[in-house]
Design brief:
By secondary structure, the chain is α+β, with helices and mostly antiparallel strands. The longest helix is centred in the first third of the chain and has 16 residues. Helix content is 32%, strand content 28%. It has two domains: 200 residues, Roll (T-fold), CATH 3.10.520; 89 residues, ApbE-like superfamily (T-fold), CATH 1.10.3980.10. A hairpin with a 2-residue loop joins strand 12 and strand 13. It contains nine helices and 19 strands.
């Protein structure tokens, strides 16, 4: 990817600013998953490149736009056989459909394809949206072994969970290779392996919604965790004075009406964090806090439309938050 385009994408898409890295590690970057991804590994040559190769391999399985991917083929053929890993991810995604009461729905593809948030953005008509919503219902996706069945016309879209799941696989492989210090950044899905060289915690800056590049609301210090942020400022366009963002409500087919501007989730699993940040945005402040408080080992930081920052009660036990300024 050309450097100029990379800079623009970093400005528009990345959710985090990485703060205060001490030693220089082995770092490899690439444009994948419709964003800039970067893997930095300390103390093991070649591991960062292997991490990028892992991302590329899973993108080829899980993308809804690459013709050779398992998801693309499922959508084209209305079901079929997939690899055990893809079947496991789909099962996890369907579990989040249940947890969220249908707000998290991987069958949103017929609708998300209308808006073009990963390409040329368009404002679809109400009738077009309503017609596409007829094909949205995660309960009509069935998995038996490695066989996926779904309604004719249904389109799967793993955009709200795939990056997190891939980040988990990269971290898993690095740990298996003996890596004890690494940072994986898949365009806002970050996993930190261990601590920074020297033993200090990683400092992750959380971007201020709709602010200039590099402006943050504060930093989180953490070790050996996943941190994921989703926000209505990531991908959006304005038309007729109305802002349309990429987090769609599967019940309406339109951008979610929410009092949140961003949600950050800290957890052991980046797939969990990926799904839960989207669910938090869809739920709004009160219900999002109630949900995260009910889940063991998971904490959240929410930025409201009025600029307030609220956190779950156990955040300090896993990550120290320091407000900017």
């Amino acid at each position: 990817m050309r450097k100029s385009l990379t800079v623009l994408l970093l400005s528009a898409v990345l959710l985090f600013t990485l703060c205060g890295c001490a030693a220089e590690g082995d770092s490899v970057s690439a444009f994948m998953l419709d964003t800039v991804v970067k893997v930095t590994v300390y103390g093991k040559d070649g591991a960062a490149a292997a991490g990028i190769q892992t991302v590329a391999a899973y993108e080829k399985k899980l993308s809804r736009t690459l013709p050779e991917s398992e998801i693309y083929i499922l959508n084209a053929e209305g079901g079929g056989e997939v690899s055990p890993e893809t079947a496991a991810l789909l099962s996890t995604a369907l579990d989040y459909g249940e947890l969220s009461g249908g707000l998290f729905d991987i069958s949103i593809g017929a609708v998300s394809g209308l808006w073009g948030f990963t390409g040329e953005k368009t404002l679809p008509g109400a009738e077009e949206i309503a017609a596409a919503c007829e094909f949205v219902d995660y309960r009509n996706v069935e998995i038996s072994g490695n066989t996926v069945s779904m309604d004719e016309g249904m389109k799967l879209d793993l955009g709200a969970i795939a990056k997190g799941w891939i980040a988990d696989r990269v971290a898993e492989n690095l740990r298996a290779a003996g890596v004890s210090s690494a940072l994986i950044n898949l365009g806002g899905n970050i996993v930190v392996v261990g601590s920074k060289p020297g033993g200090d915690a990683w400092n992750i800056g959380i971007r201020k919604p709709f602010a200039a590049e590099g402006e943050i609301i504060g930093t989180l210090e953490l070790r050996d965790k996943s941190i994921v942020t989703s926000g209505v400022y990531e991908r959006y366009f304005e038309e007729g004075g109305v802002l349309y963002h990429h987090i769609l409500d599967p019940k309406t087919g339109c951008p979610a009406e929410t009092d949140l501007r961003s949600a950050t989730v800290i957890s052991d699993s980046s797939a969990d964090g990926d799904a839960l940040t989207t669910i938090c945005i869809l739920l709004g402040e009160k219900a999002a806090l109630e949900l995260i408080e009910s889940l063991d080992g998971i904490e959240a930081l929410l930025v409201l439309a009025d600029g307030r920052i609220v956190t779950t009660s156990g955040l300090d036990s896993v990550a120290k938050f320091t407000p900017a300024g």
